[in-house]
């Protein structure tokens, strides 16, 4: 079977069939339950040389194209990891994983669990005792079981139940039920039904029954108030076409060149990022996302999920809709992943790419001549949106004309809710409707930055602005300087007021500043994980304790919380905390920088029944990398080119309009 041209290309549908068929043939008497089928990127020592030769137009001998597959024997807890050589059509290796490692949840499994849960006689009995009226059905949300002890459990799943109306868009989070089944993921056996606390502490109400309350709905069909009628269409046109070019997964835009990757876990990945022919980053990806809840009552105390490791950003990627998720002249990228049977599953329009206007790029008015020099900033946006249960996350890379990369994260969707007794409030949550409480929680993202700033011998530094002492060198007491600290060993690093973290290359000196070329990470200081470091949250997500980390590069170290996060135990997990503790030399070395970005979400009533987007931005910006503003050559902005229109006062009229396309269409949720 022929392989795709490039070693970084995502797997094709035929390759997924090839892989699953090979493994099924190896176990003819067993039924396999596939968790992962994914491309295995070549080792960096081979791939980087390949990419350099490719960029320079030199002949490039092909690299072996390999994949990995993680699977169970169906209905059992035995898990296996295999490596497949696609070029040779051969299974290179199969090893059985130790019992404390668990595979992530998959879509087929979740659907089976939901059905098994709601059909179980004891669950049906509990629902009947709750006395839901006939017009309400029960919806089941599945959550990773988390961890609250050293006990070794099989793969469990925690089910939270909700009542919902007949309309498919009914907001079932508005009626949380006060009991929660636990099921065995493999056998679908009911392990227990836990009563949920509905008061300020852990006391349980075993006799709680349904009490009606006015519902709060988000779906346009169900909202009480009419839709606004004063919006007129806002159109984005590029009459001469787009400014980017695409060759497979190789993208050129302005002076940018990079490869777009995609996999089940990280979703969107950027490879081999260069600007004007100069190396910047070898690989950029979302490494992990941890969502711990701050409700101290059992079983909410273990409520947490690694949305990347436990579920997968690629698995949860939406099919993006033209004119709704993406506005303008759009290039879509579609991919395939594998289902539990080893069949290819299309992920259409999982990433969209387009150009947007981003305000003023730079401007100066010469006050002596009144001559104006001005450019508008054009940005290339790559966007993917994932739905994980109740939440939507929007991930965007913005590449600007001044060589900056900006990683934007937006959170929206619906709050995960819990039942609360009438008249009761709790200090760790917000009541958003009668009998409905939204607990405080955090979202801690890990951005993995694999730099190649003018080569792979890089160093990570902290740079603080500090006042000079009031002495003879600073006689008026106004001077300040920057104080730099080299992180010469793998370690964590914290934020501080005005502190800037930089990746530098000491072997490449800027001829103007006479300092090493650098890229700086600009990110607002955020409160990190609020759970105690010795809690299960803190021990399982050590990356969430500090905003910055630096480690020496290793091919197998891609995920901040470890390879296997489902019910992970810190004693058996190799994670970012483990790697940083090695104390590897990170000065003038091939390093990886990890940035933990935390959104502490203490819900507002305005976040319900659906949450307006909350946005965070991390910027990777040149700092002494160029000799001058790299956007100087952006053409002067003119009205002739931009075709704007002026609205006279007398032309202003009442506006009418609305979305008439398929904007309301939603993907099915995990």
UniProtKB/TrEMBL annotation:
It holds the Pfam family Cu_amine_oxidN2. Its EC number is 1.4.3.-. GO terms for biological process: amine metabolic process. The keyword Nuclease does not apply. Its cofactor is Cu cation. Topaquinone (TPQ) is generated by copper-dependent autoxidation of a specific tyrosyl residue. The keyword Disulfide bond applies. Residues 236-632 form the Copper amine oxidase catalytic domain. The modification 2',4',5'-topaquinone is found at residue 391. InterPro entries: Cu_Am_ox_TPQ-bd (IPR049948), Cu_amine_oxidase (IPR000269), Cu_amine_oxidase_C (IPR015798), Cu_amine_oxidase_C_sf (IPR036460), Cu_amine_oxidase_N-reg (IPR016182), Cu_amine_oxidase_N2 (IPR015800). The active site is at residues 307, 391. It comes from the Eukaryota. Homodimer. Belongs to the copper/topaquinone oxidase family. This is Amine oxidase.
